[in-house]
Amino acid sequence: MWMICKKEWQQYFSSLTGYLAIGVFLLLNGLLLFVFPDSSLLEFGYASLGSFFSTSPFILLFLVPTITMRSLAEEYKTGTFEILKTLPITPNQIVWGKFFGALLIVIAALLPTVVYAISIQSLSSIGGIDIGATLGSYLGLVCLSAIYTAIGICASSFTNNTVVAFIAAAFVSFILFNGFEAVSKMSIFKAGADYYIQLFGIQSHYKSISRGVLDLRDMIYFLGLILLFSVVTRRNITAR
C-alpha cells in the first residue's frame, strides 16, 4: 500500500502542474484573506480565521479533483493499470494507497496556511484567535479533504478521461457539501424536516467540527462516506 502511496506522491510532484495547483490554492487564499476588502481578515477588527474556513471548502472543490483526477484514469489510459494488477497487492491496497497518497498531497497544501493563523495571532493586540475553534476547523478541513479525495479517486476509477474524472469529482463533492444545505432552505421543508436534510450533507458536520466540538456522529459520518466511496472504487478496480 505504501508503495502505491509513495508513487502517487512522486508522480504528482514530478511535473510543474502539481506545484502550480498548490501555488494557485495558496495564492487565492492569500488574496481572499489579506487583499480583497470584502473578505480580508484585516478588515474584521478582531482576530478570526472564520473567512478562511468558510471559503476553503469551495477552493478545495477544485484543488482535490485536480490531484485525484489522474489517480486511476491515467493508469487506465496509459496501460500501467495492467502492470499494477500483476504486482502482489490486493485491490484494497491499491485503493487505500491511492487515497492516502492523494490525501497527503492535500495536507501538504494545507500546512502552509498555518502561517495565516500565526500572522493573525501576532497582529492581534488583545486575546488573539480562538485556539480550540481553530484546531477544530483544521480538523474539519482534513476530514473534508479526505471525503473529497475518496470521491475524486472513485470518479477516476470510472473513466480513462482525466477531464471527465475532474468534472465528476467536483460536481459530486459540491452536491454533497452544499446541495443538501440548499434544499433544506426550501419553504416546503420548514416544518422541521430541514434539520434532517442538512444532516445528509457534509456542510452541517463540517460546521459542527469547526466549532471545536468533537461529536462522534460527525466522525462516523465522515468515515462512513469515505468507506462508501472506497468500496465503490474497489468494485470498479475488481471489475477491471
Mean pLDDT: 82
Biggest beta sheet attributes: none
Give the overall silhouette.
globular
Parts with pLDDT < 50 across at least 5 consecutive residues? none
Report on the architecture of this protein:
This protein has 240 residues and is mostly helical. It has one domain. The protein is built from twelve helices and no strands. Helix 2 runs antiparallel to helix 3. It is globular and about 60 Å long. The protein starts with a helix and ends with a helix. The model has no long low-confidence stretch (mean pLDDT 82).
Keywords:
12 helices; mainly alpha; 240 residues; globular; 76% helix; single chain
Concise structural overview:
This protein is mainly α and 240 residues long. Helix content is 76%, strand content 0%. The protein has 12 helices and no strands.
Walk me through the topology.
Layout: H1 2-12, H2 16-34, H3 50-68, H4 73-78, H5 80-86, H6 91-110, H7 114-123, H8 131-156, H9 162-184, H10 193-200, H11 202-210, H12 216-239
